[in-house]
Amino acid sequence: MAAMERSLVLVKPDAVRDGHSDEIIGRLEGLGLKKVALKTLRMDRALAEKHYAIHREKPFFGELVAYMTSAPIVAAVFEGEGAVARIRQEMGATDPSKADTGTIRADFGRDVTRNAVHGSDAVETAAKEIRLFFAEEEIA
Ligand code: DAT
Ligand code: MG
Prior knowledge:
By secondary structure, this protein is α+β, with helices and mostly antiparallel strands. 39% of the residues lie in helices and 20% in strands.
């Protein structure tokens, strides 16, 4: 049986502005995962650079940080057995044009930068990411 896990989910700027955040969060709740924290915020440059620190040397890093700080996002913490992998599967591939039919990125992503959603890629990453966005007191 998969272990109880937490994962950080971000609904990215275009998906929020297009009014898809409730649908995206709802799909993840529909997996049977528990939403234990939720907020809308505008990421500042320092937060975006920390959250995506692993990509600092990538050619797309500047564009990624500029995009993520361009408008409000919705941040959520989900909890459940196997939450990290199950959310990644529901999200689909990083490039929406390569994402499986019916995944969040296939349905709401515009391109590889504006790909609708972020989900933590491992339990350890999730713990670090959650701490960047939420105080423990904000998590149910
Ligand atoms: P994921 O978000 O699926 O975990 P990632 O960790 O490789 O993908 O990259 C983080 C984000 O960076 C991704 O959601 C969008 C952006 N990105 C990744 N590869 C890119 C590329 N080749 N061109 C532009 N942006 C890219
Ligand atoms: Mg990643």
